[in-house]
Amino acid sequence: LHPANTLSLHDALPILLQMVFGFLSDKYRTVKKFMITVLVIYAVSAYLFYTKETQSFVYYMIAIGLSGGLINTSCGLSDAWILASSEYLRKRLSFIKAFGSIGWAIGSVILPIVILKFGYKGVGNVILILCILSLVIMYFIKDVNRTDNNIEKAGLSDIKGLIFNKRYSLLVFILFLMYCGVITNNIVVVDKMLILGATNLEVGYKWSIQSVIEIPTYLFGAYFLQRIDQYLLLKISAIALAIQFVLFGAFNSVTGIIILSSFQMLTTPLILITSKTLIYKLTSEKMKSTGQMFALSIFTGLSSLLVPICAGTITKYYNVNVTLFIVAFLSAIAFVLLNVLEKMNKCSMIKKCKIT
After folding, report:
1. Tell me: the pLDDT tens digits for 259-283?
2. Is 70 within 8 Å of 140 (Cβ atoms)?
3. Distance between CA 333 and CA 111 in Å, rounded?
4. Where are the alpha helices (DSSP H) in the chain?
5. What is the DSSP string of 69-120?
6. What percent of the chain has pLDDT above 70?
7. 173, 203, 258, 281: least buried by Cβ within 10 Å?
8. What would the pLDDT profile of 171-207 be if each residue is shown by its tens digit?
C-alpha cells in the first residue's frame, strides 16, 4: 500500500469513534470512564499490532485501524475532559497541549533508537508501558463536573440541533478547509522533497522543526487567547497557510522547504487552540463533548481521509505544485469565510442584547 492510502484507512475509523464517544460522554455525563476504555483498547490493539507476527493482511488492517482510530479519539476526549472540567483548566488548555508537541518531538528521536535496538516488538512494549502509566495517572484525576440536575442529558435530537447550528457548521467547514493544509503538509510536501532528492535525514529535519517550533505557540496560547480575538488568530493562521503553500509550490529547494516548515508556529497550534475555544462557545451546555468530538471528526478525520486521495489524484494527473497551489486557494477561501462567520457572530450577539 502507498503511505497515502494507508493513512486514509488509518483515519477512516476515528470519524465514527469520535462522534460516538463524544455523544456518549454527554449522554452519561462522564469523560473519564470513556477515556480509560478507549486507552485500554488502544493499548491492547497497538501492542498486538507490533508484537504479533502473522501473514494475515486483514489482521494488520484491523489492528492499525483500531490503534490509529482510538489514539486520535483519546486525544479528542482528553481535550473535551479539560474543557469540561473547570474554567482554570480551560484557560490553560494551550499550555497543556504543548506537552503533546514535546512528546512528539522526543518520541521522534527515541522511536528509531527503540526500533534499532529492540525491533518493532520493542515499540509495542513501550506503548503498553506508557499507556499503563497514563491510566495510573488518570485514576487520580477528577472526572468532568456535570452534576447540575437542571441540565438535561443529551439526546439524539440534540445532534440534529448541533448540525443545523449555522455558525457551528460554518466554523467546522472553515476548520476543515484549513486542516486540509495541515494534512497536505504532512504528505504532499514530503513527496515534493523526495522528488527534489531529499534524504531521510532532511525529511527528519522538517518533522523536527515542525514539532519544536509549535511548542512556544502552545505555551503562550493562553496569553494570545486573552489578548487577541480568536477570529483574528484564525485569520492569521489562514493567511500563514496560504502564503506557506504558495511558497511550497514556488520553491524548488529542499533547504527552502525545510525553512518554510517554521510557518508551523502560526498554523496547526493556532488552529487547534482557537477551534477548541470557539466550538466550546457555540455549543450548548449538554453538548460540549459532542460538539468538540463531532467537529474534530470532520475537520481532522474527514480531511485525513479525503486529502491523501484527492491530493494523490491531482498530483498524478497534473503535478505536485498544482496540488500545493490548490491548498493555498482553500486557505484563502477559509479566510473569507472567517469574516462571514465573524459578522454572523456579531449579529447574534446584538440580537441577544436586544432581547435581554
Report:
1. 999 999 899 889 988 988 888 888 8
2. no
3. 38
4. 3-27, 32-51, 57-85, 87-91, 93-139, 156-163, 166-195, 200-213, 215-219, 221-227, 230-250, 254-260, 268-282, 288-296, 303-317, 320-355
5. HHHHHHHHHHHHHHHHH-HHHHHTHHHHHHHHHHHHHHHHHHHHHHHHHHHH
6. 90
7. 281
8. 999 999 999 999 999 889 999 999 998 887 788 788 8
